[in-house]
Design goal:
10 helices; elongated; single chain; 24% helix; alpha/beta; 5-stranded antiparallel beta sheet; 9-stranded parallel beta sheet
């Protein structure tokens, strides 16, 4: 499993139970070395968490390969190792555990090396970072998942499928969302070996497939002397191809991103016929087609009216609305290098849809992509007003997935901690709604 560059890993920061009581907390730490070591060369780790905890190097317990040791037991060991490729699990006794939220965690790791003069031993490596505790709130009435889109630029570079699933499961989440062309090797025809590994990892981490992103590229052949847009039968074929793949991989929903013809994302006219031609197959496979309501399209818009009209006209149970919470953004995303407010889309300053507008369409909402951009160390979302959004969803009777879709700064590994913060916020708010 790939490790984060930071010494202190974000995945694995949690309170621990013993006999039904919270007795302390755990964090995962990678070895601050260029090679693995026998664990008897560890001289301990001191841990400080804000003003709450400050323990000396000989207090924490260490877990390697599923076995937990005191520092003295490590010194007495002959065959326990801290491999370079594995994080140590460090347990700090602290009755009652840490409170919900994001904490500044500081450690100092002490290691000995036989080839360095004893007067310079042990070596001391210090590190601090803000890390969010895995939430203990159940977050009802919603279910929680993560889109692998959240890990864009990390996925296939510093994260693999195994690592990403482990991070999702560590949140207490149960759902995984993917993009067909983004996360399935060999799309649209993955190998049987990859499919077997996909289901093996789902089982290992207790996850279920939720939504698979699909595209109907209406301008696929629009260039050149014989350029043209897709015909409805071609759009239906593209959608049906992905419905079959979604079913093969265990997904319940398919989000078709349909080519648009206006700046407010009115879909290409073939969308209606392409979808209607696919409804029988969707019913046969029991997969729901769910186009997204995405900024800059508000809820009160002809696009949404047309989607609802299709549902009402056909009576289908296999077409519904996917809400992207980016439409509720009410504060600007900071300008990136080289950007000005005049050179970027205006909706990045915030579309500001009133969450109350959800009430009128709640019965048609089948999936929610919990879009967000930045959450600070105080767990304050800088763009999305989560409390009113979640309150209206609850009032509308929605009990499905909130699937994290981080779309902020793409620095390596930043997404892991950002998603942790979002789940902490959403679970705490949801657990205390009216």
């Amino acid at each position: 499993m790939l490790l984060e560059r930071d010494l202190i890993q974000s995945t694995g920061f949690r309170n621990v139970l013993d006999g039904g009581e919270v007795t302390g907390f755990q964090l995962r730490v990678r070895i601050p070395n260029y090679r693995g070591l026998y664990a008897s060369l560890i001289d301990g780790i001191s841990v400080r968490v804000g003003d709450l905890v400050d323990v000396a190097h000989d207090v924490p317990l260490w877990t390697f390969a599923g076995t937990t040791y005191t520092l003295q037991q490590l010194w007495d060991s002959d065959d326990v190792r801290w491999p370079l490729e594995e994080a140590a699990v460090v347990t700090v006794p602290f009755p009652g555990g840490l409170p919900e939220g994001t904490h500044e965690v500081s450690v100092e790791v002490l290691l000995r090396a036989s080839y360095i003069p004893i007067e310079h031993q042990p070596s001391r490596t210090r590190s601090s970072r803000w890390v969010t505790l895995t939430s203990e709130n159940d977050g009802g009435p919603f279910r929680y998942g993560v889109s692998l889109y959240s890990y864009t630029d990390d996925f296939n570079t510093v994260l693999g499928l195994d690592t990403a699933m482990a991070a999702i499961a560590d949140l207490g989440a149960t759902g995984i969302e993917i993009l067909g062309e983004g996360h399935v090797p060999g799309y649209p025809n993955p190998s049987s070996a990859w499919i077997d590994e996909w289901f093996r990892l789902l089982d290992v981490y207790g996850l279920e497939p939720t939504n698979m992103g699909s595209w109907i590229d209406t301008r696929l052949h629009s260039s050149g002397a014989n350029g043209r847009d897709m015909a409805a039968d071609e759009g239906a074929a593209a959608l049906q191809r992905d419905l079959r793949l979604a079913k093969q991989l265990g997904f319940r929903f398919v989000r078709p991103k349909i080519g648009v013809v206006t700046s407010d994302l009115v879909p290409h006219p073939i969308w209606t016929e392409s979808v209607e031609r696919s409804l029988d197959l969707a019913a046969e496979l029991d997969v729901v087609i769910a186009p997204e309501i995405h900024s800059p399209t508000p809820i009160k818009h002809p696009v949404v009216d047309d989607y609802i009209d299709l549902i009402q006209r056909t009576g289908t149970q296999h077409f519904g609305l996917l809400i992207d919470t980016g439409i509720f953004q009410d504060r600007p995303i900071p300008l990136r290098p080289g950007e000005t407010r005049e050179t970027r889309p205006a909706f990045l300053d915030g579309l500001g849809v009133d969450p109350a507008d959800l009430a009128a369409i709640g019965e048609y909402v089948v999936f929610v992509q919990a879009k967000f951009h930045d959450i600070d160390e105080h767990r304050e979302d800088q763009q999305i007003p989560w409390r009113p959004v979640l309150q209206v969803l609850k009032d509308a009777g929605y009990t499905g997935y909130l699937s994290s879709e981080y779309e902020g700064v793409r620095e390596p590994w930043r997404s892991l901690e950002q998603v942790r913060r979002q789940h902490s916020i959403m679970r705490e708010i949801a657990s205390h709604l009216d």
